[in-house]
Structure formats: C-alpha cells, structure tokens
Amino acid sequence: MIPRRLLLPIALGVALLQIGVLVFMIASRAAILRTGTEVTLQVEPVDPRDLLRGDYVVLGTNISRIPAAILTETPQGDGAASEQTIFVRLKADGDGIWQAVAARYDAPPATAALAGEVDIRGTTHRLWSSQTEFIDVLYGIERFYVPEGEGRDIERNLTTRAFTMKVSVNANGAAQIKSFYDGATLLYAEPIY
Amino acid sequence: MTAYVTRVRRDIDRWQQNGLIDATTSDALRADVATQGAARFSFGSVLSMMAAALFSAAILIFIAANWEEIPRLARVAMLFALILGGYAGGAMLKLRDHPAFGEAAWIVAATAFGASIALIGQMYHLSGDEKQAILVWGAGTALAAAALRSAPLTVGSVLLGVAWMLLYSLERWSAYDLPLSYPLIALVLYGLSFWTESRVSRVLLILSVFLFAFILYWQHETVLVPIWLGLASAALFGVARLWPVEAERYLGLGSELMILGLLGFLVAVGIVQIDLIDEPGFLIPSIIAFAGIIAALLLGGAHNSRLRQLAYAAFIFQLGFIYVVMLGSMLDTAGFFVVGGAVLSLLAWLITRLERRFAADAAQTSGDAS
User: Fold this and answer.
1) Which of A32, A52, B116, B348 is the most buried (most CB within 10 A)?
2) A113 secondary structure, DSSP code
3) What is the number of H-type helices and E-type strands within chain B?
C-alpha cells in the first residue's frame, strides 16, 4: 500500500500532471492559431451521401488530392508502404483560394518558400508508382465539429454552394482550422481558446 | 455463495462425520470460510464500479454532444475540476476506509482526462489522430495506476492499450502495418499489474496478445504466427504444470495460466485449421487439436475444473467444426472419427487400469501405515 500520509499528495500530483498535459495540448494548438499564416481553402464534399458522422462533418479541400506532377523530387523505387509525411507548398490564386504548387516527401521543397507561399505538412497513405497521377493527402483538418444536430444543414448546402475555410499554418507546417464560410458569410469562427 | 465455499463446507461436514476433526475445529473452519467467502465478493464494490462506469460514460457522451449552452472554456474547466476532485476525493475516501468508492472516484477522474483530450480535439477540429489520443489517455491512466497503486486503473489502462492496438491495426488494414510496439506496451503493463496487484489485467493482457497474433496472421497470412503462438501457449502450459511455484511468482496467473495456455493453443490450431480449410492438410492440425485437448485434460484436468470445462467445450467444438468442414466427404469424416474413437477408447482403457493400480497402491500404503 501507499503510505497514508503520501496518498493525497500523490493523487494531487497525478491530477496536476494530467491537467498539465492537457494545458500543453491546448497551448500548442492555440499557438498555431495565433502565430500561423492564414490560408483560404475551398471546401469540397468528401462523400455526398455520408458527410455527417456523429457530431462532425467530414471535409475535403481543394488540396486533399494533389497532382503527382508537382512533386519536386520523384520518389525512388515503389515508395514506402506505410504512412508517409509530405509537405505541400501553397500559393493564393486570383480568387484568393490557395492552391498546391509544389510538394515533396519527408521535407519541404528544397527552394525556400517565397513571400505569399506557405508549406503545409500532411500524411499520405498511397503507395507510389511511376503511374501515380494524384496523391491523396490528409492534413488533420478534414473534420469540422458542430453542435449536435447542426451538421445536416451544412451537409445539404455543401453540395450546392461554395464553402471555404480559413486555415492557420505554423512554421512547421502544422495546420489548424480557423473559420468556416458559406460563400462570403461567416458560419463559425473559432476563438483561440 | 461461491462454488468453492459450498464444496469446502461439504468437505468439513464429511471430515467431522469421519472423526477427522472435532466440532470446535469444524465450527471455526466454517466461520472462517463464511467470512473469507464474503470478502471475495462484495456487492458494494461491484456496484460502486458500475456507478463509476455510468458516470464515465455520461461524461464522454456529454462532451461528444458538443452542447453550446456551456461555453467550451467552461467545459474545459469542469473537466479539470473533475480530474482534480476525482483524484483528490478518491484519496480522501481511501483514507477514510472507503476503498471501493475511492477507486470509483479515480476511475471517473481518469475518464475526465480522456474526455478532456476528446474535447480538445473537438475545440480545434483535429482529425485523424484518435490513435494518439487513446495512447495519451492510456499512458496517463497507467501513470495514475502506478502512482496510486490502483488495480481498477490498471485494468482501465490495459483496456485502453487494447483499444489502441485494435484502432491502429484496423485503420491501417491495407497498409500491412501493425503496432509492433504493442508487445512492449503489454510487457510494461504486465509489470505494472504486479505492483498494483491486478490479476484481471494480466489475464486481459494475455488474451490481448492472442488477439494481436490473430491480427498479425490476418494481415500477413503466414502460418508461422499461429505456429509460434501454439508453441508459446504449450510452453506456458508446461511451465504451469512443471514449475507451478515459479510460474506463480513470475507470471502471477495461478490456475488461470493453464487455461490461458490451452486457450492460446486452441486459437493457434484454429487459425491453422482455417488456413488449411478445404485442403488435404486440414487433418493434421485437427489431429493436433484433439491431441492437445486430451493432453491438457490428462496433465492438468485433475485439479482444475475450469480447464476441464474448456477442454470439453473445445472437444465438442472441434467435433462439430471438423464435421462441417469435411461435410463434402462424409465417409472421410466418419473414418476419422472412428479412428479417433478407437484411439480414445484405448487411452481410456489404459488410464482406467493405471488409475486402479494407483488407487490399489495408495490403499495398500495407507493400510501398511495403520
């Protein structure tokens, strides 16, 4: 048994440690929102029939599937079978939507990003072959949580109207959804905390 | 009342009638059995654990509902308060001699930790890292279990570890990727279970390793996996039979060890059987299955009623399984069963003779002694 006089201090220590881990998680996410570069992405429905799973909407964006042609380095061999990190360079087009202009496995493209460009980090599951035309990438922003019951409206409208979202990308390429727009109308904006 | 208590009482009655013990001793023994039997199973602690499970589920579902009436920072604060109050309150309850309520409060606190991770995922719309979330939750729970020496928290961390392993393997099904770190995690939790005296955790961990082997086979389709599993299980059984004292000290599974050994063996043989279904080689694992079941019965069945029950159930299952698989050629099945029956009859005859001789020897020895 734990000595009686130590039990309460230990319990408090465990509680504070766990709370500390949680505070750290919140702080690192908030830091991305505060300091990251803001990019606007076009939201695309993933599967029109089953967008809403539970209390979040599954989203795709205009950079969820990138052409293999923009890879700055062709991967050697068949590529690794498991999950792979990929960096995608984004640049705003004439309409203010950011598009993928370059990409590289494992590290950001060798040439430094110019002003108005930002590198976003994602993971890809796809096996590489010389016939690969498109690469599916996940950025950790494929989900938008909504209050219970509100997902259906978004689900309905997403197939008919243009939705966009603003995403904050920090220097390491980590991305974080900032706000969600129906056309020009702001639907949700996330407070930092 | 447990089956054990009933049986011991019957034995005490018999010993008293035969004059082996006097009335005072038998009364003392009965009283001891009554109090110890009651201590083994307490409705209070079971109900408090059920209450903790209900509270925990309520917390998780409440967070999942993403209710906007309470601002999310307030929700975060509520969960933090639950974590702090749960661990500290649990410690106070333990100090005031309510151990069951104390453990229940700790379970609620550990759940609040997990719910907080989920809430953060919701606040920042994180996608695709459930695995990591479960891992952090499980690690936090294991840490709390170690610091507080709590058996229920250990069980909780084992369940979270298993959930992580399942999520990991099912999510990446196509990628031929298995959490190879899982055996390491299982080993660490196994060590933890000695510190927190949680036998349930050890049984769950051994079962989870069987599940892990099954998934490993499923993804790679190599018969090597069940062969290793079968050999390891047989080795466990052998250790339990030959060195029970050491087995208890290092594995801490008591009479469950033999049962788990047999179960692992059956899982392994079952995998090979499924692998070889509709192939001529199917008979080989089937024969091994029967041989293993009979061997387990002969070696360990005498003093282990649950092992006997598992062996009987497996025997009947194998009969049905082989019959269904070989339905295409009924004559073969019939022939196989006739040979099997003949072998078992011979075995039965031999064993009966041996048992009689042992019994006669024993009677003679005791006769000489008196």
Assistant:
1) B116
2) P
3) 15, 0
pLDDT tens-digit map of A55-86: 778 888 999 999 888 888 776 655 555 678 89
Q: Which residues of B touch A4 (CB under 8 A)?
A: 95
Bridge partner list, A65 = A136
**B84: nearest CB among A15, A83, A142:** A15
Alpha-carbon distance values, B222 to B74, B229, B261 (Å):
52, 12, 21
Over the stretch B285-326, which tens digit does the pLDDT of each residue have? Answer: 988 998 999 888 888 877 777 888 888 889 888 887 887 777
ipTM of the complex: 0.79
Nearest partner of A66 among A36, A90, A84, A50, judged by Cα: A90
Average pLDDT over residues B270-285: 85
Contacts of B5 (CB under 8 A, 6+ apart): B33, B34, B37
Residue B125 touches chain A, beta carbons under 8 Å: yes
